[in-house]
What does this fold into?
Amino acid sequence: MNTSTGAPPDYFDKNGQNWGFPTYNWEEMSKDNYSWWRSRLTQMSKYFTAYRIDHILGFFRIWELPDHAVTGLMGKFRPSIPISQEELECEGIWDLNRLCEPYVRCHLLKEKFGERWEEVASIYFSEYQHLCYKFKECNTEKEIHLRTRLNEGSLVQESEETKRKLFELLQEVVLIRDPEDPKKFFPRFGLEQTNSFKELDDHSKNVLRRLYYDYYFHRQEGLWRENALKTLPVLLNSSDMMACGEDLGLIPACVQPVMHELGLIGLRIQRMPSTLGQEFGIPASYEYTTVCSTSCHDCSTLRAWWEEDEGRRIRFFRNVLGFSERPPTKCDPCVAYSIIQQHMDAPSMWAIFPLQDILALKENYAKRPAEEETINDPTNTKHYWRFRLHIPLESLIGDNELIRTVKQLVEKSGRSSPSVPSFFEHKSSSSPAMHLNGEIGNNPIINREPAVNSGHSSFSVYPVGEFQDLSKSTLPTKAVEHGGLNIIGR
It folds into this structure.
């Protein structure tokens, strides 16, 4: 219990994520052939047709952090093949303490703290050589977090700023020494961005850069594939439910082949492409065995994302949507329609949309601040799942204009076969559920169901005939989230 689990840095958080719960001990669970997992899935299969495995990358490898970490930056993958001391010495890298200890120099203290640098240095550092400093007893993120609160008193803003800068200095390392074997090392994520790396000689930079890319993108592939194939087949064979895997983030090359081999459905979010170096996904190129969506519960909604980064907004508007003029500052109904249409037209087996993104199709429903639509911010432990729909369900049920717009998108994309107009039409005020829950048959099922304990609503479009062919099971009619697994009910 001396480690925690999280995710490495990405576009959304340069410091990574620290989820605060222990790393799974797969070796221990394998002793009874993963009976806990098998029992849980077997029981769930009595009620549900499909389930979603959150962060499926964790079955290949997990981002592990020491228990004294606050951020998610200073971690390593488990399992992984570390860099040995012998490898480093063969490449002419000898001063390992220089690479593993926080690189704190006088000029860096002055840059970060300005006129306060001497005061900060006297509290948190000791000078062990001329102009070279090391942390005193307060030398972990948790200790710094507590110490800054005590020293700064009621000056909350100043305390946060001091803490952030001390964290940055603590993270000024190039290698992380393996606590289980002092002769093995893990390259610190993003090591080239550190001053410790920048102030090395060119030979050391070249060696460490090569070993970094080998660690993160090459040497682990066989190990991670083997690790996933130990656990995932056992889980998948525990029931006849269809399994969908959330495969977003830093994706190892071995993940997609294993998912294809096991028949797992992947997730595609346009702003989080799985192809390295690609800024935006292209829905038209998605594979059939995927679920595509404009956003999900763990990221900002379409409207909020549109307002986050002007540069990305301009590139997306021109390069993806194909418009030459300057984009609107808000995600207006025309923009939302274009983006949703791309996803409806995608080859993906499923197109599933958060209801917030569907409501962006109508200006009257998009008047609340966009940032209030986000369900969960995994980078912020104080951001709770408190989203509640601001429009009564009765209003949506009676909104024939919105219903016609969605119907048009569904039918144009070919996801409705054959088309049954009465499916969307308001037949009777006494049976409102008909308009959003639909009927079982060869029609798409469009659901609006709140997730258990989350207040989250989603709008889903399932190509029914194709889903039945793949799942060989009853058509899903209710989507909920339960106990960490997203599951689709019979």
User: Anything to note?
Assistant: The two ends are 38 Å apart (CA to CA). Residues 420-459, 461-490 have pLDDT under 50 and may be disordered. The longest helix spans residues 202-217. The chain is about 35% helix and 15% strand.
